Amino acid sequence: MTDLTDSATRAVGTSTVRVEGREKVTGAARYAADVPFEGLAHGWLVLATVARGRVSSIGVDPVLAMPGVIGVIHHGNAPRLNPKAGMFGIPDGTLQLLQDDRVPHFGRPVALVVAETLEQARAGADALVVTYEEEPHDTAFSADHPGAYTPVSAPVSAKGDVDAEIAASPVVVDQRYSTPEEHHGSMEPHASMARWENGRLEVVDSNQGSFMVSTILSALFHLDEGVVRVRAEHVGGGFGSKGVGAQLILAVMAATTFDRPVRVTLTRHQVFTVTGMRPATRQRIRLGADSTGRLRAIDHESVNQTSTIYEYVERNGEVTHALYAADAIRISTSVVPVDLPTPTWMRAPGCAPGSFAVESAMDELAEATGIDPVELRLRNEPQVGPLSGLPFSSRNLVGCLQEGARRFGWADRDPRPGVRRDGRWLVGTGMAAGIYGAGSVPSTAAVTAEADGGYTVAIGAADIGTGARTALTLVAAEALNVPPSAVRMKIADSDLGSAWFAGGSRGTSSWSWAVTAAAEDLRDKLVGIDRIPPEGITGRGDTAAQIAALAQQERHAHGAQFAEVAVDPLTGEVRVRRMLGIFAAGRIVNPLTTRSQLVGGMVMGLSMALHEEGLRDAAFGGQVNGDFAGYHVAAHADVPDIEADWVDDYDPSHPSGIKGVGEVAIVGTAAAVANAVWHATGVRHRTLPISLSRVLTSQA
Amino acid sequence: MKEFGYNRASGVRDAVALLAHEPEARFLGGGTNLVDLMKAGVETPDLLVDVRGLPLGRVELRSDGALTIGATVTNSDLAAHPEVRRRFPALAEAVLAGASGQLRNVATVGGNLLQRTRCGYFTDTSFPCNKRVPGSGCPAITGEHHNHAILGASDHCVATNPSDMGVALAAFDAVISFETVDGPGELALSEFYPPVGDTPHVETSLPAGALITAVTLPAAPVAARSRYRKVRERASYAFATGSIAAAVDVEGGVVRDVRIAFGAVASRPWRAHEAERALIGAPATAQAFGAAADAELAAAKPLAHNGYKVPLLRNLVVSVLTELTEEAAR
Ligand SMILES: Cc1cc2nc3c(=O)[nH]c(=O)nc-3n(C[C@H](O)[C@H](O)[C@H](O)COP(=O)(O)OP(=O)(O)OC[C@H]3O[C@@H](n4cnc5c(N)ncnc54)[C@H](O)[C@@H]3O)c2cc1C
Ligand code: SF4
User: Which residue ranges does the record assign to the FAD-binding PCMH-type domain (chain B) (predicted)?
Assistant: First the structure.
C-alpha cells in the first residue's frame, strides 16, 4: 500500500490531461444516448405549435396503428405529478408536463410518442395531429411592459441615497442597455433513459448534478427517498441548461406507463425549444462620479422576461453588488411574464448580461471624465463589500487589471475613438472587469483505501466537460499524498450521496472540500492499520458543519478582459483580432483545463457580443433560428488570438484555496468587445449583439 | 423523416429515366442541402437518384475560351481549377467563401444551383410558409426578415437565394445545360430562376425531372480581373448578408466593360443590369460607381428590418469597383 506521509505532493497546480480523455477521443466514453439497454423503447417529443391556448384534441388512434408504436402519453393519460416539486423546494411549473390541456407557450411538450425504434417514434410524433383552441398571446417583452413587477425573491437592495448622490455628481452617465435571448447549445443534446428495475427507478441522464436531479424527481413522482437512482457518467456541456429536463420527466412517465426502459433524446432544434435560455434583459445604469472618477453612486435597474409558469429572475445586479466602491448603490430587479418558454440559468447568470451594462457604462464614464478605463477601475476598488461592508475572502482584481494592461500593451493606447485605420478597417481596443460569486455548498464524499494500494474517491459530482473528474483526482491525490495515478474517481451517481451540482461556479470548491474531508477521515482511520482488508477502509466527509461555521465574507472570483477589434465601416463587419483575459479565481487546480474553461468562456462572451440572438416570431412565439445554421456562435476564424491566464488569489476561507473558474470567464467579455468597437468607431453599441446591420446603420 | 428509396444512376439517360417514373424523386448530389431538409421534414422524396457516379465531373476549357463545368464537379475542385482561377477568379473566390472545407469537398455544382433558401420559416415545419406549403402564408414579411430580399420579391415570398457561387455565375452570363427524357436543353442563368410572383414554390424554370449536366461560362476577358466580396456576420461558415461579384475593364479612366451581380438580396443571384448600363462609358470614379449603385438600388423595396442592405450593397459596389480599378492602374 502507498505510504501516507505529510509531505505535499505536487498534483494540484500541475497541468494534467483529463483522466477520461482517452475514452472521449476514442469514442469509448458513453453519453446518455449511447448506453444500450435491453428492451429499450424510444420516446419522441411533440411540441405545441401555438403561443397560448388549450389542446382541444390529440389524434392518438391513427398513430397507435403505426408500425412499432407502443403508445402516446398526453395530458389525458399521463401520471399525475406533485405540483410542489422544484429545486430548493420552490415549486417549478416547467416540470408540470402533460398535467392539463393548457399551452402556456410555443414549444411546450404536449405529448410523447413511444415506439420500438427511434425512427418509429419520430414518425409517430410527426403524424400525431394535435389541434388547439388558440387564445390571444403576448410575446412582446419590453422594459415598460405593464406586467412588470419586482419579485419577492429580488427586493431592492441599496445603501445611501442614490438620487441625491447623482444629483450632486459633476459627471453622470445615464444609459440603457439591451441583451437578447441567448441559448446554451451544449454539444451533447439532452438525453435521458429511465427504467424500473428491482423496485428502483433507474435513470441514465445528461445532467449537471445527479443527486439534485434524483431529489427533484423523487418529489415530482411522489417516490420515497432512495427509490430513484440517477447517473450521468459523461456529459457534453450544460451551461445551466441541464437540470431536470423535459426529456427526463417524459422518459420516466413512459417507463412507468409501459413498464419498459424508455429513452428520450432531443434534436438540436428541440434543445433550442425546450431547454430554456438566457432571457432578454433591459437595463438602465446611472453612474454619478466626481471629476476624479470616484464613484458617488451606482444605480442598476434591470428587467428580464420570464414565463407565465415560472418566475425566473436574471440577477443582473449581482455584478454591481461587489464590483466597485460607491457612496450610494441601488440594485432593483423586475420581471415581465410573457407567453414564451421559461428562461433559465445560462453561464454566469446575471453577471454576464449585468456586466455588459455596467462595464459599458464604466467605459462611458471613462470617456466622460477623460480617465483611462483601467485607471478608473483601480480608483474605485473597494476595500470591503460595497453593499454589505463584509471583508473579501480574497480579492485580486487589481492584479488582473495591472497584469492584463501590461501584457496587452494598454499603456500605449491612444484614448481617442475612431482614429486608427488599417486598410478598410477601423481598429480599437477596449477592456472590462468581471466578477462572479464563489463559495462552497455542503457536500458529502467517501474515500476508500483499497487492498490493492489504490484509493477510490466517491462523490456525487458532475463532469460536464469541465475536467471536474480530473481536478478532483488531483485534489484527492494531494490530500492523500499519493500520486494521481493511485486515485480512481467515481462520480455522477446519486447513490454516492448528497453533493452540490455543477453550477454557480461552486462545483470544484464544494466537492474538493468534501473529498479533502473524507481523505482526512481516512487518514485518521488508517492510523495503526498495516493491512487493508479486502473490502477496503473508507473515510467519509460531510462539509455541512464546516461550511455553516464559516465567517460571513464576500467571496468572488474576478477578471479583467481586453480586446482589440477591427470594424469595417462600409459593411458593418466587426472582427475581434485578439483577446486577453487575466483572472483571479482562487488557487488553480489544473492549469490545463482551467485555461480551456477560461478561453471557452471568453469565446462564448465574444459570441454574446457579436453573434448570439434567439430570434422569435411575435405572431407565433416560436424561434426562427433554432439551429446552428441560424443561431450563430463564433467559428474558429472568429477567434484568431485569444489568451487566458491568472494571478495569485489563494482563498484562505477554503481548505484548498479554491474558487471557481467556469463563469467569471464570460463576465465582462461582451463589454470589452463593445468598448473596443466604440474605440474603433466612436459609436456606442448598447444593444447586443453588435451585428453588422446595427454597426452599419449607426455609422451612417 | 420518411422512408425513401436510393438508386445510383449509371448514366445520364438512366438517371433521367429513373426520375421520370417517380414524381416524388430527387437527384442527390453531395446531399449537403437535400439531406438536411429531409431530416427537417421539409423535403420528403420517395426516391433519391445519386448522380455522383455520372461522368459529369470535369471542368473543360473550350477552344473559344468558354469554360464548361460538369454538374457533379465538387465545389472544392471548381475553386481549385487553374482555368477557373485564371479566367474567373471571382467564381473561385465565391465558391471558397461558401460553407466549409468539408462541405465544399462533397457539394456539387448542380446541387449548389438548386440549394434552397435559408429562410428560418421555410426550414421549420411548425411555421406556415408559401414556399413550402403554397397558400399557407408568408410570416417573414411581418416577422423575422433581417436577411431577406430587398429586390425582386413579392407579397408572397421575400426569401433570398443563398448561393455564393451563383452570384459569380450570374455576373458572367452562365448557361445551364440539362437533360430530360425528351433530350438535352439549355437555359441562360438569367432565365433559370423565375420571378417569385405568386408561385414562390417554383424555384427554377427547368422542365420537370431535368438533370443539370453542366454550366458553361462564355469567354469573358473582363472576368480575368474580377472579385467576389462576401459580407457576413462571422468570419466563416455563414451565409452572406450581402455580396457582390464584379469585374471591370477601364481604359483611359473610362469604363469599357463591367459586370456586377449581387447575392443575398433577391430570390435569385441578382445581376445589376441597371448599374452596368449606367457605368458603360462613364468615368471610373467612386462617384460614378455610387451613382450606378443607386440606379440599381432605386428598385429596392426594403422591409422593416433589412433596410441596411441598401447602403451595404452601395458600399460594396463602390469599394470593390474602386479596388479593381486601382489594381488595374498599378
Ligand atoms: C452548414 C452549411 C453552410 C453552408 N454555407 C454556404 C454558404 O455560405 N454559401 C453557399 O453558397 N452555400 C452554402 N452552403 C450550401 C452548400 O453550398 C450547398 O448545400 C451545396 O452547394 C449543395 O450541393 P449538394 O451537391 O450537396 O446538393 P444536394 O443537397 O445534393 O442537392 C441540392 C438540390 O439540388 C438537386 N440536385 C443536385 N444535383 C442535381 C443535378 N445534377 N441536377 C438537378 N438537380 C440536382 C437536388 O435534388 C436537391 O434538390 C452551406 C451548406 C451547409 C450545410
Ligand atoms: S419568405 Fe418565402 S420562404 Fe420565407 S416564410 Fe415567406 S414564403 Fe416562406
Answer: 1-222
Q: Specify whether the CB–CB gap between A692 and A383 falls below 8 A.
A: no
- Determine which residue's CA is closest to atom 53 belonging to ligand 1: B32
Q: Which domains does chain A have, with CATH numbers?
A: 21-30+442-548 (3.30.365.10), 38-348 (3.90.1170.50), 392-438+555-700 (3.30.365.10)
Q: Does B311 touch chain A (CB under 8 A)?
A: yes
pLDDT score, position B330: 83
User: What's the pLDDT tens digit per position in A526-553?
Assistant: 999 999 999 999 999 999 999 999 999 9
* pLDDT tens-digit series, residues A193-223: 999 999 999 999 999 999 999 999 999 999 9
CA-to-CA distance for A432 and A298, rounded, in angstroms? 17
Return the residue matching grid coordinates 443563398: B162
Q: Does A692 lie at the interface with B, CB-CB under 8 angstroms?
A: yes
Q: Which of A137, A164, A132, A169 is nearest to A56 (CA)?
A: A132
Q: What are phi and psi of A352, to 5 degrees?
A: -70, -55
Q: How many CB atoms lie within 10 A of CB B309?
A: 28
Task: Give B70-111 as a DSSP string.
Answer: ETT-BHHHHHH-HHHHHH-HHHHHHHHTSS-HHHHHH-BHHH
State the helix-helix crossing angle for A246-258 and A210-220, rounded to 10 degrees: 50
- Asked if the Cβ–Cβ distance from A617 to B127 is below 8 Å, we say yes
- Measured in angstroms, how far is the CA atom of residue B195 from the centroid of ligand 1? 21
| Helix pair A669-681, A692-699: axis angle to 10 deg | 30
Domains of chain B: residue spans and CATH: 1-50 (3.30.43.10), 224-329 (3.30.390.50)
For residues B63-92, one letter each, b for 16 or more C-beta atoms within 10 angstroms of the residue's C-beta and e for the rest, the string is eeeebbbbbbbbbbbbbebeebeebbbbbb
pTM above threshold 0.95: yes
CA distance A355 to A578: 20
Atom number of ligand 1 nearest to Cα B71: 41
pLDDT of residue A63: 98
- Write down the pLDDT at residue A9: 58
Question: Percent of chain B having pLDDT more than 90?
Answer: 97
- Mean pLDDT for A65-70 is 98
Residues of B with Cβ-Cβ distance to A632 under 8 angstroms: 233-234, 238
With a cut of 60, say whether residue A473 has pLDDT above it: yes
Residues in A closer than 8 angstroms to B242, CB to CB, are 571
- How far apart CA A28 and CA A23 sit, in angstroms, is 5
What is the C-alpha to C-alpha distance for residues A428 and A566, in angstroms, rounded to an integer? 7
Indicate whether A6 pLDDT > 60: no
Confirm or reject contact between B121 and chain A (CB < 8 A): yes
Distance (Å, whole) CA A118 – CA A262? 10
The phi, psi pair for A365, rounded to 5°, reads -70, -40
CB within 8 A of B171, min separation 6: which ones?
A: B90, B223, B226, B245, B246, B247, B259, B260, B261, B271
Strands in B161-210 per DSSP E: 175-180, 183-188
Tens digit of pLDDT for each residue in A31-66? 999 999 999 999 999 999 999 999 999 999 999 999
Residue A368: strand, helix, or coil: helix
Q: Specify the ligand 1 atom closest to the Cα of B75.
A: 21
Query: Is 0.90 exceeded by the ipTM?
Result: yes
Which of the four pLDDT bands, split at 50, 70 and 90, describes residue A700?
Answer: low
Q: What one-character-per-residue DSSP string does A251-317 give?
A: HHHHHHHHTS-EEEE--HHHHHHHS--BPPEEEEEEEEE-TT--EEEEEEEEEEEE-SS------TT
The C-alpha atoms of residue A26 and residue A18 are separated, in whole angstroms, by 13
* Terminal Cα distance for chain A, rounded: 74
> What is the sign, positive or negative, of the torsion defined by CA atoms of A617, A620, A622, A624?
negative
* CA distance, residue A301 to nearest chain B CA (Å): 28
- Whether the pLDDT of residue A2 is over 50: the answer is no
